[in-house]
């Protein structure tokens, strides 16, 4: 009890009461600084293949020779198919797959995204492994159109040639599914969700028809993206895309295997996030890291493979980049070797990391190294929340100036006489006294703001694409007005007290802190980015209002009239800065920075939300935005007397 | 005793000459579409029951016979299977699926039920353990959790005394067992020629296990013919489907490397056809093949050991237009169609001469190969994702114009916990997709729920599948969490779930559609892989979990001390609501007491009333209960 008694006395220690803002700021500074030390050798590691069974690049690859002739023919065929109508094209694709000797099926789907219908049909064929027992499968995917919307001529032709070549081998212990989705977002999503759907019927929400043929548990997916026309084009490097929906990542072993095979066995350089020239310097590593964090925090699909990752199917896309001397056969051999390696797997990929940030194709920071950054940021909110909670339990006695403690002119603390029995003592008078917390109103306000957040969330994800920019502008306008209006209403109508404001802010920040801490374990990047963007919320206090409250003492000598004008100016600046930190304004700023069209970004977000279940917009509108609004209410409430 | 048996021997042999031979073997070959070849080996041996009971074995394998005797097994069916039968392109299954097993090992047997349940279980355990040793298979892992007692799915094939009373059927599966050469070798050892001569000399592990589908079966049953002594018959079959092209690859170059450009067969009608661009042409016609190329060796000699065995060893089910040649000790002869059946060529191996080979040349046959449509198409898949729940989805498609009655049997491991209330059997016609699905009511349902670590689930449904329609059977299940030590070394692979067994019942003879089968047939779905929640067995996660716990404990207590305000119990003010409620309660109580007192009358009633009032006053005054009581005592 001695310890707890000592701790209890700490509660009233003025040092401890003043500490939280600095502690919170320290958390933010360390958190951000942490991010910058990750590229250093000491905080990252060389990648390695952890699963023994994979044996990357240990097999001799035979894909080549006359297969090249077949490939050229398939590429011509695919080129011809691109001139056909959609139904003819699908029929012709099915015919080709059937000729190869696969079990062929098609899957129509349609989605409603931002008020528009998206329709398409996936074609896929199952190569039944001669020694497989239909319990496991690997997917070779070549979307008809790649992520950029170009027709994937060579990728598809290569997949067809490989399927024909694979058919002759008897070594497959797993079935191979050749999947040709109509595009790179909706098609794979429709296919993989139908593959795992518990309901065999077409559900009204997903509008995805069930698959007629299945082949057991999917072990891994490799997508080929090689949109080069019938005359070919030699590439320089392979860009390996690995980000899944909501920042879920495939097992690092799959990525390592691809890199090891491509660069070790085939001599094809591998890049990450399109960093064509990577000198492995601190700067390049940091750029890759930042690109990775931005991509991951967006949570959007980055390629056709992305849809598979949330279903615990490890997936990557091999995308050809640059001009070089590698031809389609090298890519074919890489894919062959990759499939041989996956085929070796006895268990589902589980051995290596699922949480990592890549610094280049063979260097990564693991979760233990990077997680503190996001956790510290989330912690900064919690620290402030706790401080506000403690403060709210202590109400100032007498004029509020006592609270501030900014007098530097050596004012003596007031003393009072305490008599206990015969003993008389002179002790400093208490400047605060414990008070009951009135929590109903703050809790109700926080809850109401969180409920209100569903309005922007709904409107920005469900309206027609034409109205999305307008919806965002409306959101900005209402977001900026809401705190002022709400705060006026609360002050006028409900006579909200400073204590209640503190409790309200405390609740809101506590919620933000815990949400971000939880999120950091799922999607580090999103938690980190939102944490950085929301970090000003820790320091929001009611704006000084009136004559003396919270006024910097340095300016004490300035005339009264100037004081007032200065205060107004400073309040204005603070309010402006606060407005800039609001989620919708930040969204606008990000669009401007990445020189993206606002409508396009909003459409992508709506697409991700309604088709692939990307929760980034939920985090923005239902976690960050309410915290900002509550902070705004506190800011506008003003620090005047009760 | 033994002498007496020896003397009896010629007599039994004599009777055997007149009846079915004691041993016969047969190989049935049938090319399948898309360059596949079905080869069905059948070896049948038998012995009279009296000889069997006196442990006299001739062609019947002694090792197996003794096991059966020891475990009082009346009828035994053992299956080793690998791969899957592609019924869409290959048609109906060989032998109506009766000699086929689910992926892995499957065993069912009728045991003597004398002595009650414990005795039967003892016998079953002894049977599977002995067979495990005999066939080098993990049959000993068929314990109580993997054993079911199907009711409708199986019926004894043999003729049993008393019509099958006093026998009990037990069924066990091992879907995870990988069938391999080590199982084939003991299988061949049971044969009289041990795989050295006759058609069994073709059975080479390399080829058998390179097949797309293969199943080995052993069936032991008593057979009785009228007027003869009952015999115990053992039928061993090996059914395989080989990819002709793959099997014919020379043994010294088995790698399917790309062929030289000159050998590519190109579709020259394509507009882009050029010397470096070649659209592969679809292969036409039937491929050339020979036994020695496919099996790596010709048939060595013959195995005509039993007397009275005059049946042909090899039969080919093939178009009458195809030319078939038999190469026997350096001489060629053309094999002609059978007199009765044009599609059949039969050949009896010669007892003289060393090698026999059968070869066919490449031919383009106009006539479409004859194929029997399978009675039913079935597939089964696990749906859902995640580690908590899943669903089972079986699709049964009846392509025929008449309804079919089937028995659907599932034996599930205990860690898959099905919810039977979610069992839905829906049927919709195949021809029109617009019609809504109609529920199908099972005619009968047998369900034995699982007991954790003791018994698996047994589900048997008797269903009628309407004509030309698809029946979808779905239910949801939970995935159990196993104990730490119950996970196998490859825990992350998932756990195998045995295939569903579907028995298609024969149509009634007086049914309207006359083209249905008169015998029942079987088919099995593929086995499934069930991913279970798996703990991370690696060290770092354990460390993380431990440190997190310690930090949470430390943080929790310090946080508690910092935030909570400590006051004495007496200092805690009562909440306004509680005070009000207590006041009302006190008033009511006081009123009730005074009422009682008034009813009884007399002086002591007044005292009670005063006490009650005191309590009420105490409650109203915001005091706690004790002080209220004390006050009332004082007043007393």
Automatic annotation (TrEMBL), chain A:
Pfam families: Gaa1 (PF04114). GO terms for biological process: attachment of GPI anchor to protein. It comes from the Eukaryota. The keyword Membrane applies. The chain crosses the membrane at residues 20-40, 370-390, 439-458, 470-490, 510-535, 572-595, 615-636. InterPro entries: Gaa1. One of its GO terms (cellular component) is GPI-anchor transamidase complex. Keywords: Membrane, Transmembrane, Transmembrane helix. This is Glycosyl phosphatidyl inositol protein transamidase complex subunit. It comes from Friedmanniomyces endolithicus.
From TrEMBL, chain B:
The keyword Transmembrane applies. The chain crosses the membrane at residues 541-563. One of its GO terms (cellular component) is GPI-anchor transamidase complex. One of its GO terms (biological process) is attachment of GPI anchor to protein. It comes from the Eukaryota. The keyword Glycoprotein does not apply. Keywords: Membrane, Signal, Transmembrane, Transmembrane helix. Residues 617-636 are annotated as: Disordered. InterPro entries: PIG-T. Residues 1-19 form the signal peptide. This is Subunit of the glycosylphosphatidylinositol transamidase complex-like protein. It comes from Friedmanniomyces endolithicus. The lineage of its organism: Eukaryota, Fungi, Dikarya, Ascomycota, Pezizomycotina.
